[in-house]
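Try this one yourself first.
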């Protein structure tokens, strides 16, 4: 699995690594994150094709109270949702024709801080996107079973850390790969 690149920022990005055994655990992660969302938060979703980025976003929408159909923006690039507390804009950049295509389409107006933005395949926009508050990389974890996923989260800034704290508070606190932290 490819590491998520560090986000250049004055404050240190914070990481969390999780193993999700099944789709129910993925939905539980989305519910935990939903509790911390507020207008202005940007979330980027990367990872294996078919690993559950859209399923995660659908679970997030359900946790935020959306009861209608949650469409995949694979071909439309954008699906907007008017929720009770804010609007959520779900983008899928997998089929972008160039790194600037999202700008040429005027999608930058949705990143104005008034809604929550979820972008699948942000890497297709190259370096033209602003850094997100929270980045999730969802990959298959075949060593743990057919339905298992490994999720690497990277948060920056106060809003990103608030998202990680909500996830931890919901009981998602598995340590990431690598050596144990040194005792304090």
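Now uncover the answer:
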């Amino acid at each position: 699995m490819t590491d998520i690149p560090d986000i250049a920022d004055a404050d240190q990005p914070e990481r969390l690594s999780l193993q999700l055994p099944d789709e129910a655990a993925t939905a539980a992660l989305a519910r935990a994150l939903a509790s911390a969302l507020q207008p202005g938060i940007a979330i980027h979703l990367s990872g294996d094709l078919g690993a559950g980025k859209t399923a995660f976003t659908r679970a997030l929408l359900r946790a935020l109270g959306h009861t209608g159909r949650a469409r995949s923006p694979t071909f439309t690039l954008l699906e907007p949702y008017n929720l009770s507390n804010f609007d959520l804009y779900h983008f899928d950049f997998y089929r972008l024709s160039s790194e600037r295509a999202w700008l040429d389409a005027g999608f930058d107006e949705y990143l104005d801080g008034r809604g929550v933005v979820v972008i699948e395949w942000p890497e297709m926009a190259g370096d033209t996107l602003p850094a997100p508050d929270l980045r999730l990389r969802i990959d298959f974890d075949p060593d743990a079973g057919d339905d298992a996923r490994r999720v690497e989260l990277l948060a920056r800034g106060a809003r990103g850390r608030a998202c990680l704290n909500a996830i931890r508070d919901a009981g998602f606190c598995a340590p990431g790969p690598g050596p144990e932290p040194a005792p304090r």
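Discussion: The chain has one domain: 25-169. Confidence is low (pLDDT under 50) at residues 5-10, 174-184.
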